[in-house]
Amino acid sequence: MDFRELVNLRQSVRKYSDKPVEKEKTEQLIEAVHIAPSACNSQPWKLIIVNNPELKNKVAKATFSKAISFNKFAVEAPVIAVLVIEKAKLIAQLGGKVKNQEYAQYDIGIAADHFCLQAAELELGTCILGWFDEKKIKKLLNIPKKRKVGLVITLGYPPKDYKLRKKIRKPVEQICGFNTY
Q1: What domain count does the chain have?
Q2: What is the pLDDT of residues 117-152, one digit of tens each?
Q3: Residue 25, domain extent
Q4: Taking the complete model, does pTM exceed 0.90, yes or no?
Q5: Model confidence at 109: pLDDT above 80
Q6: 181 inside domain
Q7: Strand segments (E) across 20-147
Q8: 180 domain-assigned
Q9: pLDDT per position as a tens digit, 25-82
Q10: Which of 34, 92, 154, 165 is a plausible cystine mate for 88, CB 3.0–4.6 Å?
Q11: Residue 169 domain-assigned?
Q12: Which pLDDT band holds residue 5 (cuts at 50, 70, 90)?
């Protein structure tokens, strides 16, 4: 599959079959995150794969509530990946302070993209979640207090009848300029 096919295939999946994710595929996903680029090669992340069903359900339930229920589908996913933001190398931290940028935030975005694109190539579905109860997830997964949960990603096989949706995007002229804004 070429890259254009891959990026068109990747979409946010919000419904999962109960088919488990094979260990070999999980290892490929971990390797995709492992080789992701980062500022100063800091690799400021820790990837936690949650595949124990009981623990996975507890983490999934920390992504929604009675009032905010749009992530309720997370309990269907057989696996949840959690990207924890780790300390970057000193040079990346200093550069970030000087430039007023959070490079580690960008870096986990790149790592998450590698994870999701690799999953799509393996015919797995993903959905990146930014809404979650960080305190609960940190407690459930024994994440140190000084660390921050950056993203949560659901992972699994979409049901056989899951349709590839047409991507609706702004016109290219609205998102790209040459030589000027």
Answers
A1: 1
A2: 999 999 999 999 999 999 999 999 999 999 999 999
A3: 3-175
A4: yes
A5: yes
A6: no
A7: 45-50, 79-85, 125-129
A8: no
A9: 999 999 999 999 999 999 999 999 999 999 999 999 999 998 999 999 999 999 999 9
A10: 92
A11: yes
A12: very high
Q: What is the CATH number of the domain that holds 169?
A: 3.40.109.10
Query: Residue 140: in which H helix or E strand, if any?
Result: helix 134-140
Tokens 């790209």 belong to: 176
C-alpha 8/C-alpha 172 separation (Å) is 16
| Residue 117 within any structural domain of the chain | yes
